[in-house]
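Just curious. Protein, please.
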Amino acid sequence: MSEPSSSPPKPSGLIGIGLDNSDGHKRLTTGEKFVVVGGSDETHGRMTETVIKTLEQLKQRGKDISEVGRKELAEIIHKSTPQ
C-alpha cells in the first residue's frame, strides 16, 4: 500500500460565487474548467472575464490548471482581474 500524499490537491477547475445579487436574476456561466454562479450583473461579468482570462493565460504558458501551484495561480488571477 502507498502512503497518502501530504501535499494539498491541485485545482482542476475554477469556481466563482457572487453574493451581491439583489435583482432576483439567477446567473450561471459554465465553461471548460470553470463555473461562475450568482452575483449582480456587474459582479458576474467581472468574475466570468477573470476566469476566462486566467485560463487563457495558463494556455499561453502551456500549462493546465492542475500543473500550477497556488501562488502562481493567485498571481495569474490577480493579473486577469478587470480593474
